[in-house]
Amino acid sequence: MNRKTSLLDYNLLVPFGLLMIVSVMNLYSATKGIHGVSDAFYRQLIWFGLGIPVMFFFAYVDYRMLKKLSFAFYVLTLVLVVLTVIRGRSAYGAQRWFSLGIFSFQPSELAKFSILLILANYFDDHWLEHGFGLRQLLVPLTYILIPFVLILKQPDLGTAIIVALIGISIILFSKIKIRTFFLLLTALIVIMPVGWHFMKGYQKTRLLAFVDPYKDPLGSGYHLLQSRIAIGSGRLTGVGYLKGTQSHLNFLPESHTDFIFSVLAEEWGFIGSMVVIALFTFIFIEGFTIARYAKDRFGVILAFGITASLTLQFFINIGMSTGILPVVGITLPFMSYGGTSLLLFMAEFGILLSIHARRSRFEEV
Amino acid sequence: MSYNGEFNAYDPEDLKTRRTYRILFIMMAALISIIVIRLWYLQIYMGTQLEYYSQNNHLRRIDIIAPRGDIYDRNGVLLASNNVSYSLYITPPQFKDRETKRLSDITGMSVTDISSRLSTWDGFSYTPILVDPYLSWEQVSEVLANKPFLPGISVQWQTRRYYVNGKDMSHVLGYVREISGGELASIDGKRPGRYVSGDFIGKYGIERAYEDELRGRDGAIVKLVDASGREIRTYTSINPVQGESISLTIDAGLQSYTASLMKDYVGCAIAMDPSTGAVLAMVSVPSFDINDFSSYLTPDQWMKVASNPDHPMENKCIQGTFAPGSTYKPVLAIAGLNEHVITPEKTIHDPGFFVLGNRIYHDWKKGGHGTVDMHKAIVQSCDTYFYRLGTLLGVDTIAKYANLLGFGKLTGIDLPSEKPGLVPTSAWKEQTFHEQWYPGDTPSISIGQGYDLVTPLQLLVAYSAIANGGSIMRPHVVLYPTATTGDYTVSRLGISKKILDVVRAGLLGVVNEPGGTAPGARIKGILVAGKTGTAQVIRESKFKDTPESMIPVKYRDNAWFVAFAPYSAPRIAVVVLVEHGGHGGFASSPIARNMIDYYLRGVRPQ
């Protein structure tokens, strides 16, 4: 057997490849308006094109070199986020974009990766067999809090929440003392009303709209209702590819970004939705398996962090589209339009492949 | 490319690691399950409803109201048709609430009216909502001129009912109005989806009775629209189909002429072909304008009609019940002869009153009619004769013949809201008043007073049966089915020709013999037969001896006249009731005379 090809994890690559095909088809439908396909689709194709070599680059490079770069990368991300807050481009009333010549990109997307990298590094260095107490968690909590506050400041509630959730899930995964866990939980519950006080008006209305979308069906509840209508009208087999009226007649806003799943669900129905969910599930299972059989603890935490971040975003995005979670502006990994996040996801995928290729069993053979 | 030694190795198969991953996979399975269940709920369980919402979003249906069928008279004269009207629609998501005031200025609708129309909006659909169904042409141009300031406003045209003459036959034609919530609910139970809110429906008269025939099949244009309400293309369209046209038995000329004869009175007049039951004219006064009722009725207009003590909205011909007075006497004559309690030749002496027990019943003529046989009793309308005959027959035998002649039950005319009147019997009194029938009750009902209640149409049907040789006909106003002449015979009286001839001869005498009560109905060259009736209305005893002309109008007697002509082969039967008209021969018979003259000879005397 060719050693190079056997290094590749087909359990990961096959569902990923299928998902890419679905993604391109679905994005084509989502961006196809009355007057043809929008530029967004072709831009995304370019990002895909760029993403594939990026993915294979990270697959072949030893992930362990990232450990040394993790702190530098973290600092770089913070600088970029701060710069964005100061003089970024405004989209939808929030500064999330950092212009870099032809393409502008979102440093907050970068933060999702930086945080799991630096936490993997930290817990690899400071491993405690019997779990962490509050004092040992001081540094990692600070790591999480800095980008969280900065991103919240942009303001980008969704990404801030994801960054926090990624951090928290890594802490939980790396074992935390049960007493510390409840202490932090209590603190969080106390802080929540204070957080509400500091939230922007539109963020509050979004949360309120989630509680009762019918109260303001044309305002903040509009997305939620139209998304539900889109998904529901797909019924079992869907209305047919390129025939979804909710997205093509613009009833569904941001159909190619936050509500991409609704487009799929409308056109392919329950069956199509199940296929996509199954593909994601295969990827998640394989991602966690890679984490378990990684050669070292850094690989374990890194692979877990990457897979957990995918799972969280997948769940929050679909939960948001189907109306079980508030609309917070989280995209669906690999499916939503967005260059920065696609490129990052593909790089993370490459890292997963790299960790898999260097797994413990493999080197023993 | 290896960094051996710097990294912590660990055992993937150790117990704690296993437990960690087991928890991890359980959590993941839980999250995936939540999503799958939610999708099942939305797409399978709620699918049908959400699909409906989706279609509501992107398909805009514009209904094209089908024109109703036209209505013609028996000679093909157009009575009711349709013209174009304009209505105002608002597409709520595009409409700016602050423009409500501007819209109110243009249409004259109040701001609250507009808001309440808009409040029916479901919250997200782009289906235009009907706001004002009756825009004048001036308002249409105002709206179109202001269109840039009024986003979401559209004007649509549709056909609307109009009547060539809005007043002369209101009660026959009836009118159409927007369907009420209650009607919609009750029809939806039987025929779901046939009507929608805002549809017009026949509310009265022919429009209501023949709603199913007259109503057309609405068409629609279904358009594909995007979220901003722009029309992308026509999705599908259905052409409207006009309703069936109907021809009436009414003679429009006679109808209008009768209306003009009656216009100064309160009451009603009906003309009918006695051999077929075809109604030639049916007038009830005061009347109301059905063109007003079929469009936007101002509260003032409504109050004027609703508060009128003479009930313009009621068709007195079929909905009004009155004491028949002396017009009831032929019923007793037929009963007496058929039951052999009396012969035509048998005479009585009339001193001007009739005594039963310790009660005295007066004849209308002081001093009485002297020696009276049946013929003279009918001609001169002798009360004493019929008091006596009634007492001989008894209440239940009278009732039997009254029922035979069609009293006390619906005539079956094809117009809504007909009343049955009342034929009293001993059982009825027992049931209603828990009191037995006293012999002293019978004389009053024998001359059509007391408990007797008839509709003018019932009286006409009974007289038509006498005129046509004994057939009770079902009166009708629609020539239907149009191609054939239907048989409208309800029943045969089963009374011998000999008996009917005696009664008919009496009725001829009423008009044409000296001493008859209706000389005013005579027509030169045509033999008219008829009967007057002067029915008391409830009045206070203080007017007992006051001359009729001195009594306030509302306490004056109701004046009846029922007639048919020509005597040998009747082609028209007429009933006229002038409420509070005093003596029947005086007030009503000239009107009946003129109607007959007009119909048979086309003469229209000044």
Describe this structure in words.
- The complex is a heterodimer of chains A (365) and B (606).
- With 365 residues, chain A is mainly α.
- Chain A is built from 15 helices and 5 strands.
- Chain A folds into 2 domains: 218 residues, no CATH class; 134 residues.
- Helices cover 71% and strands 5% of the residues of chain A.
- Chain A starts with a helix and ends with a helix.
- Chain B is of the alpha+beta class.
- Chain B folds into 2 domains: 188 residues, Penicillin-binding protein 2a (Domain 2) (Alpha-Beta Complex); 320 residues, DD-peptidase/beta-lactamase superfamily (Beta-lactamase, 3-Layer(aba) Sandwich).
- In chain B, a hairpin with a 6-residue loop joins strand 11 and strand 12.
- Classes of the chains: A mainly alpha (365), B alpha+beta (606).
- At the A-B interface, helix 10, helix 12 and helix 13 of A face helix 1 and helix 2 of B.
Q: What does this entry show, briefly?
A:
The complex is a heterodimer of chains A (365) and B (606). With 365 residues, chain A is mainly alpha-helical. Chain A has 15 helices and five strands.
Task: Supply database-style keywords.
heterodimer; A: 365 residues; mainly alpha; three-stranded antiparallel sheet; two-stranded antiparallel ribbon; 15 helices; 5 strands; disordered N terminus; B: 606 residues; alpha+beta; Penicillin-binding protein 2a (Domain 2); Beta-lactamase; five-stranded mixed sheet; five-stranded antiparallel sheet
Strand content of chain A: under 5%
- The chain-level structural class of chain B is alpha+beta
Helix content of chain B: 25-40%
Measured between the Cα atoms of the first and last residue of chain B, the distance is 126 Å
* Residue windows where pLDDT falls under 50 for at least 5 positions of chain B: 1-6
Overall pLDDT score of chain A: 84
Radius of gyration of chain B: 36 Å
Strand order of the largest sheet of chain A: 3-4-5
